[in-house]
Hints:
CATH architecture: 2-Layer Sandwich
Structural class: alpha+beta
Order of helices and strands: HHHHEHHEHEEH
Helix content: 25-40%
Amino acid sequence: MLREPRPGWLPTALVTALVTALVTALAASLTGCGAAAGTAGGHHLAEVDHPLQRTIAAGVPGEMPQRASARGVTLADGEVPAGTTVLDDSVPAVARLDPALESALREAAADAARDGLELDVNSGWRSRAYQQELFAQAIRKYGSEAAAARWVARPGTSVHEAGQAVDLGPATTTSWLAEHGASYGLCRTYANEPWHFELRPAAATDGCPARYADAAHDPRTQR
């Protein structure tokens, strides 16, 4: 005779089926979360990729850097809050730019605004401590000092530390500035960084000089 099942007792096969279904559902859920996180992460450059700062430069030619956050870095070191433009004097990264560069940027910004564009600052003046952290991030990202130096100048050699360079966005704006910037004396310096601009006063009459392949080919970074 078959014994009556005890109250609350479930056959082993049914329990196994229920557990399998739960495990399968949980695995699918975790996979979905991982995919979503990966997608979201795809929108953030490695911390090195610039502003490098909240940001380093991406390491992908033509890809705009997002602000890179560096550990222990504050506004006083040149960190740039989201939404900062070349008009924001309250932000040290903008306020401590070379005055002639800042003036040229604002002149360009006024004309760009007529075309519906805004010159957003991703990085401007930086302290040496900030540059050191960005370079360290770049080494971790690219695997060696030599590879990192293509995207981030070694501390003590970056023109950002002197307030003589600015990294701008978005891509539509940098494309506009690449086309019209010479008339303001604003030129791209590195072929691999379409966001990096410096002041070249002679460009208004002579055009922008040839670009370096990357920061590692810039004599100023070899000190």
